[in-house]
């Protein structure tokens, strides 16, 4: 199966600690890299993964709180020092431009490639990026800033060729692509070999949603129903539910309730408050509601 | 002797590596903290020292290349989250304002204390900061940016009291300060006890200079003659001297030549290029010219 990996670069919250870095993750989808959020120090965390910097062309920012975007300008400058000339595309709510443009202007002499900022519609679910393998949609969230999550939906995977049947009928190479697209094959004697004898179905398309930062939004379940993996913030445990509500964050239990009602395959908790010495309480609390829960951690790689 | 420590938070150069963080250091002078430069990730490096964030009120920036200042806004926001209300003062060449002011403006709602930016005269040696224990001067450097180093000169340390003499003559506590300042003591019978019998000299004032980034400037020796500790960039080794000149940096050997002609007490090399797997060549090269040379390293604490 082709790669669809989530690399956790940082899963702490606003106050950095010696245990967690601020928010960032890299998605490796068939060797094309996508970044979501880019807190301070992300470029060093990125380097640790040994993924290729040059395979990253697209960055999605959830919102402009410092722990989600302060690493952008350093990352951009490093790319430039490494000789990058290919454009980079950065998606985010409209104030991302107000944050980033003055920095790009200040450092323009040292940035040798185009940086394209795309303001996304963060109030509705909107298709903001598409290539031949994936569609990316915004997910409206509710936080103390213009904020959205992102939903990655893999496109339909083409069926696989039954090599032994191709050989048996002596079907030439030039016909393979059209057969993958669904064509039958006509033998010289006029006999039709149906597509279903020549192929077997590709894997089911996979999906991943990133929801951080946000207060608990039960209705999110509608838009992430049945996805394979949900990364959801769980800044607090239930004991601090009042505080969570006040600062528009979610508790681990609430994240699990959402995962359960959306019937997702797996839940990964992140964006941990600096107040917890470890996250075992958060994990336990969530697993009581939704057993298929794991904790994010720097360096963790999860297959969707 | 009272503290005058240099804590190295980062001593790499522009391209961050897994071995070195970008430039930053904290000076602990009698429990008052001063920061010089603040590259990305400095707040985490600072936290590792276990020094008290609240004891830092003054930051000196050499120049606005990203590896010397991108950590400022994150540090400021963290201070605010921790409840700081005391103002912070940041000194640097005039374009520091162009870099930092838009960020402060963007994040103004989340910064709960005054951030005062002071543009320094970086073309001449200028007294830019003074308190009762130290004077800080700019050191004009030559780089691909408006850039200066900083010289910390400890003020004269008051003489120490000879406790046994104070007791012997029954001198009251209220007189101690004036005796420290140089006064004699007159006994009830009119006899004069000279100050020199009541005190012994304080330690010689210490001095520290930070010179990064710059090309090799032999005439710097005049302004740093006889200082106790010199931190000087040594981005390259002699083999890359042409490259050093081209990008306005210094080689380890050149830094040592400067240290030797300025007769400093000790030389610490830093701002290492990412191209070196370790800095043993740089150290060897410098020590051949100036044996009292050490390498900076993250976590190193040097007493001036």
Descriptive report:
The radius of gyration of chain A is 22 Å and the shape is globular. Chain A has 304 residues and is α/β, with parallel strands linked by helices. Chain A is 25% helix and 27% strand. Chain A has helices at 42-49, 66-69, 72-81, 95-106, 163-169, 176-180, 195-198, 241-246, 252-261, 280-289, and strands spanning 4-10, 24-29, 32-38, 56-60, 88-92, 115-119, 127-130, 134-140, 148-154, 160-161, 185-186, 192-193, 199-200, 207-211, 229-233, 266-270, 293-295, 301-303. In chain A, strands 6-5-4-3-2-1-18 form a 7-stranded mixed beta sheet. A 7-stranded mixed beta sheet of chain A has the order 7-8-9-14-15-16-17, with helices on one face. Chain A has a two-stranded antiparallel ribbon with strand order 10-13. The first copy, chain A, has 2 domains: 4-157 and 203-303, Ribonuclease Z/Hydroxyacylglutathione hydrolase-like (Metallo-beta-lactamase, Chain A), CATH 3.60.15; 160-200, no CATH class. Chain A has 10 helices and 18 strands. The longest helix of chain A has 12 residues, at 95-106. Chains A and B meet through helix 1, helix 3 and helix 4 of A and helix 1, helix 3 and helix 4 of B. Chains A, B: Its cofactor is Zn(2+). Chains A, B: Zn(2+) 1 binds at residues 63, 65, 143, 213.
């Amino acid at each position: 199966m082709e790669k669809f990996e989530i690399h956790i670069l940082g899963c702490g919250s606003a106050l950095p600690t010696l245990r967690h870095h601020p928010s960032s993750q890299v998605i490796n989808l068939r060797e094309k890299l996508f970044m979501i959020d880019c807190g301070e120090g992300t470029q060093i965390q990125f380097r640790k993964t040994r993924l290729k910097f040059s395979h990253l062309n697209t960055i999605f920012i959830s919102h402009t709180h410092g722990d989600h975007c302060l690493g952008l300008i350093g990352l951009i400058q490093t790319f430039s020092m490494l000789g990058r000339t290919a454009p980079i595309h950065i998606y985010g709510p409209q104030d991302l431009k107000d944050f980033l443009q003055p920095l790009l202007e200040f450092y323009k002499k040292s940035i040798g490639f185009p940086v394209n900022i795309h303001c996304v519609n963060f109030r509705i679910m909107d298709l903001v990026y598409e290539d031949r393998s994936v569609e990316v949609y915004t997910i409206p969230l509710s936080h103390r800033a213009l904020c959205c999550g992102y939903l990655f939906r893999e496109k339909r995977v083409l069926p696989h060729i039954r090599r032994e049947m191709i050989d048996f009928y002596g079907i030439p190479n030039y016909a393979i692509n059209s057969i993958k697209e669904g064509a039958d094959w006509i033998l010289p004697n006029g006999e039709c070999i149906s597509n279903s004898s020549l192929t077997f179905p590709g894997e089911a398309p996979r999906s991943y949603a990133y929801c951080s930062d946000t207060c608990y939004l039960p209705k999110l379940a509608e838009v992430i129903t049945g996805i394979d993996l949900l990364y959801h913030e769980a800044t607090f445990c239930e004991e601090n539910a009042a505080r969570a509500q006040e600062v528009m964050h979610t508790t681990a239990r609430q994240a699990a309730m959402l995962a359960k009602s959306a019937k997702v395959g797996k839940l990964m908790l992140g964006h941990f408050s600096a107040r917890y010495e470890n996250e075992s309480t958060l994990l336990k609390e969530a697993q009581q509601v939704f057993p298929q829960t794991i904790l994010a951690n720097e360096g963790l790689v999860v297959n969707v």
